[in-house]
Fold these 4 entries.
Entry 1:
Amino acid sequence: MREPDAAAVRREDVTPAGTADEQLIRSLFDEHAGSLYGYVLRLTGDPGKAEDVVQETLLRAWKHPDVLTDRPVRAWLFTVARNLVFDHHRARRSRPQETSDEALAVIPADDELERAVESWGVADAIATLRPEHREVLLETYYRGRSVKEAAEVLGIPPGTVKSRTYYALRALKLALEERGLAP
């Protein structure tokens, strides 16, 4: 595995300018940022996240300089970095998956959503019809066949196609009314 580039984490990103502890943070950065970045990169697999975690780790070291005096500095930095990685991982798992702009672009508009919901309701209502009624509606309305053509395809007399269509439409109207889809 290639050695991480310490320059990937820029000193000015983590060094609060003009503070009394600037020398401390510079020495921490110079001494530990490269190896800390490599460690976090192996944990996350994402260079951007690794940079963020290293910056946050060094920021916490700057905020709590007293912690660094009574324990090994490198061990404390690596522990903080590991905990930050785990916290970020847990936070991602606890909230819904984020979507990209490309995924949002395929979401239909409100009117398209309403039509989709209505079509599901109509399909559900059609599924409740008797098979012979579904066949007649399929041939006459969906495929656009005349009564005579539907009769030939179904192998039944044209009068039967007419009566089945009538009863199928009545049954469909009732099923749609039950679902709140009838006008």
Note: The radius of gyration is 34 Å.
Entry 2:
Amino acid sequence: MLHQPGHVGLIPDGLRRWADANGATLAEAYLLGAEKTVEILLALQGHGVQTVSVYNLSRANLARRDDELDAVYAASAHFFSALLPAHFDPAACSVRLHGDRSLLPEKYLTAAHDSEMSMTGDEFRINILAAYDAGDELRAAHERAQREGCDITKSFDIGEVDMIIRTTSEALLSGFLPLQSQYAQLNFLTTPLNDLDVDRIDDLIADYRRSPQLRGR
């Protein structure tokens, strides 16, 4: 029996190393990374994936140098304001930002909010994690579970992840949705995001479909 991943986690990585290896600026590397992320999202959508959660920035990442953060913010704003509306039907696709919005700059927040307001479909959902911290998420879920009298596993805004793709050979999740990723199939690629051939996504989906998904059973 073939199994279809409904929810894929994407951890784009290797952009700083790619910039160094290719004589590119951080701004160039992250802009290309935003475009590559859209290519991956389109490939996943084409395979029938319903939700993709993209790890844009952890809260710990906010301690990086200002020039790198500026490059991430500029590329992210371009992703929200230009790339998403150019490639996705707003009546079919939705966008949601998750994380501590108080830690993000106004330009980023404005672009993300505009995407959230204009893209309201339910056929393909894109979660963007920025200034995200798993501890914050767990505390918020605990408070919601107590308030609403439900099990904590039902109080998370983001549901269970079936497969995770990280564009680095480092076998780390770096705090990405730890509870939701308990039974996710993990894929750590040796190719940096900007060099990734999107055909590789086809291979990963095919591998998932062939693999038994026992989830502890």
Note: The two ends are 16 Å apart (CA to CA).
Entry 3:
Amino acid sequence: MAEKVKPYKNSDASKKEQVTEMFDTISKEYDGLNRVISFGIDVKWRNKVVKIVSENKPKNVLDIATGTGDLAINLTATNAKEIIGLDISNGMLEVGRKKIASKKLENIISMVIGDSENLPFEDNTFDAITVAFGVRNFENLEKGLSEILRVLKPNGIFVILETSVPTNPIYKFGYNIYSKFILPTIGKLFSKDKIAYNYLSESASVFPYGEALNNILRKIGFINVEDKPQTMGVATIYTASKA
């Protein structure tokens, strides 16, 4: 089970409430800082997710923890007729809605506020579901994954893009230096929320990855579970399906 790390350790609020507050606070700066922190490589990772989803020719796609909608926008390349971006932070969604309007994609993409652990959709609704850098923010990981399995159609594709820790000792050392010291420092210099990027770093370091997350997905009931490490293992793409 994933260790429960919260953004604000001195707060009695639930992780879900704290994550919502954090992303509302950093929503307007999130895209720019994200590009800097990842050196822009996250764009390449998202494109790989789109390629995987495209191979399944989905008619509708749900992008959970959509944030400001980057992946939802990219998923229009799949030619899906309907894409729903769901997030718990209205601040992030508002930024995403402006981006979608500027690209005139409102007829394809809708942005919905909602809880990943209580999805407002019927069983067997979506051909494809994606989560990019969001599953580690679930308050109850297994409940969130169970909800995803519920609303995914049989034979549908589920794709996770999430941070992970390199297994190579040299890469792992460099990753630890960057995530523990450099990333939080950048966050403190440029973010309104001085704690947010400490949380993003810490939550990534303790979240299950590789075979550990594969096993959780299998336990929930997903089949055809695979993991594909990216860029020396600093991120991983997971694919799974529903019987």
Note: The helical segments are 15-38, 41-54, 70-74, 90-102, 141-151, 169-190, 196-206, 211-220.
Entry 4:
Amino acid sequence: MNPDRRTQAERSAATRAAVIRAGRELFGRLGYGAVSTIAVAEAAGVSRGALYHQFSEKRELFEAVFEDLERSLVEVIATAVAQARAADPIESLIVGCLAWLQASTATEVRRIALLDAPAVLGWSRWREIELRHTIGLVENAMAGAMAAGRIRKQPVRPLALVVVGALDEAAQYLANSGEQGDVADVRAVIEQLISGLAVDRTIDFRA
């Protein structure tokens, strides 16, 4: 298509995508505090006015970048589970959780999603956005495992929230730890946690 014949909506969408892409690269590499809207506009190849036409302030741009990052994470997790082709729903859950944890160790994810987003957006908004993108994946996996008889039937949402909370804490721990040796330990903990949900596992709570 001739660029000159694009509709205003198409040009606006292209500008927005370019700004988010540039913002994601800069926020992920330098951190929220070190990035100006001027720098983002220059990296995106648009005017500052065009940027502000899309986003009224830097915080609003950052939120859009965080949303974009969360969508990417969901794709990474879904792809990992699909490629694993695990016959056991518990194994699929473990694959998905470990894919999430592995993705969280990337510099871009660590900086944007784990370190800056809670501080910039506030814990409640950060959590709301994250859950909007991830909770469905976890709930579907839990429901599938229950239907297959691998997890005892129970309310899906509370169980999914507990698992997501554990993954968040694990990812935050790794983001703030800085120790590569901790990754293997945290992976082992997550594997044990998910395996412990299986109905064929007997746990004596009196011990």
Note: Residues 28 and 108 are 4 Å apart (CA to CA).
